[in-house]
Amino acid sequence: MALRSSAPQELPKDAIVMDENEAILHQWTIVRSWPKMTDVWPFRLGIPLLGLAATIGGLTINEHFRRKLKLHRYGKLSTSFAMGLTPAVIISAAHCIFVTHDIYINKSKCLLCLQQRAMTLQVGFGVCYPIMLSPLANFMYSTRHGTYRLPYWGDYKGTLKLWWRFVKAGKEKFIALILFEAFISAFISYKEKESLLNIQLQMFALEAELLAELKAKKNRNQLEKQN
Q: Which positions, given as ranges, span the membrane (predicted)?
């Protein structure tokens, strides 16, 4: 059954009325059970791809700060795990809730608005989040192992200046990451919208075909009774 949104007075008598949560669950069920992967890949693979992109961003940024602090292998596993996994988990959940669910129930008619929302989430958690938190984690290891002369922890101004110097040193890299994250999030959002429209058109065509068959069968039965 294809999902439609209508005003209460326009609903057919035999319509099944759903709230937003039920409608989202219904759409998820259709996507999961859809036979052709090529039709639904943006929903099945899109969110994991966005999570992977966020992981790439987090690991790249974390490695940049680690090189600047000359940490070598000190704390590499723990900081890489935190900066690689956390953005992926957050962006996967955020995109699903604030973009994919909106597409499922056609809440926003503006595709550009959805893409801007997706890009903001992706850049925010895939680039800005690790840029802010990766230095904090790596400064701790640098202080512990004495790999870089850091300002005193109470010297917030000096710490901020050092952070900004490290950020400026990776400016080109960070700009490239921002463009990469923005592009992939906008692309996946567009393909999700396109995929859902394609599914709905196929379902509408199937429903029309079934209705035509039922009508033809009914007409044949009436003719048989008359004869």
A: 41-61, 81-101, 121-141
